[in-house]
UniProtKB/TrEMBL annotation:
<feature type="transmembrane region" description="Helical">
    <location>
        <begin position="88"/>
        <end position="107"/>
    </location>
</feature>
<feature type="transmembrane region" description="Helical">
    <location>
        <begin position="185"/>
        <end position="204"/>
    </location>
</feature>
<dbReference type="Pfam" id="PF00528">
    <property type="entry name" value="BPD_transp_1"/>
</dbReference>
<dbReference type="GO" id="GO:0022857">
    <property type="term" value="F:transmembrane transporter activity"/>
</dbReference>
<keyword id="KW-0813">Transport</keyword>
<feature type="transmembrane region" description="Helical">
    <location>
        <begin position="55"/>
        <end position="76"/>
    </location>
</feature>
<protein>
    <submittedName>
        <fullName>Glutamine ABC transporter permease</fullName>
    </submittedName>
</protein>
<feature type="transmembrane region" description="Helical">
    <location>
        <begin position="20"/>
        <end position="43"/>
    </location>
</feature>
<dbReference type="InterPro" id="IPR043429">
    <property type="entry name" value="ArtM/GltK/GlnP/TcyL/YhdX-like"/>
</dbReference>
<dbReference type="GO" id="GO:0006865">
    <property type="term" value="P:amino acid transport"/>
</dbReference>
<keyword id="KW-0812">Transmembrane</keyword>
<feature type="transmembrane region" description="Helical">
    <location>
        <begin position="161"/>
        <end position="179"/>
    </location>
</feature>
<keyword id="KW-1133">Transmembrane helix</keyword>
<dbReference type="InterPro" id="IPR010065">
    <property type="entry name" value="AA_ABC_transptr_permease_3TM"/>
</dbReference>
<comment type="similarity">
    <text>Belongs to the binding-protein-dependent transport system permease family.</text>
</comment>
<keyword id="KW-0472">Membrane</keyword>
<keyword id="KW-1003">Cell membrane</keyword>
Amino acid sequence: MDFAGAYSPDNLKFLLDGLYVTLIVAFSAIVLSFLLGCVLGVIRYAKLPVLSPISFVFVELIRNLPLLLLIFFMRFALPEVGIKMGPMAAAIVALTIFEGAMIAEIVRGGLNSVDKGQIEAARSSGLTGAQTLWHIVLPQGLRRMVPPLVSQFISLLKDTSLAVVISLAELMHNAGIIIGHGYNYTIPILLLVALIYFCVNYLLSLLSRRLEARNA
């Protein structure tokens, strides 16, 4: 095992470049999937005519497909119908759709967890359904969603490594290139990559705990 060679300045910079791409993809997908998941979750919770059945079919379909299939579809299938995306865009779109479906269920579950008595009290006091949702249900539901949402975001960050199959220059892709350049680099590089993923995800876990403590 050649730790000195594996951890050369050039290799470390190359890994950090990959980490930067990983974080850009993860952050973009987290924001977009959260927005998508909230919209789908609220639609399913509200049981809106037409929209709720469509949302149900979409969520159940996406949740039962492998993420890797979506990544391949965005990168290689859509160009056949004239929609071309680079590796980063394809990864972000695939992650957004896949994680958005997962988050939709988290949102729906969080909203359903709000005590029905509070909803009835709000309606009896003259609030409309939309006002009740905005002022009563959403604030309480969102606080309860924090732990599962952070867990899903951690999962999303780790799932960015699947984009290696479409040659996105993220952390695992760059790690693979370094390993290919040195016979004894495999264990040192993989250990370092594991440490990087652990540190980033552990920071997210700490953030989750602080948010839970603040909302308690």
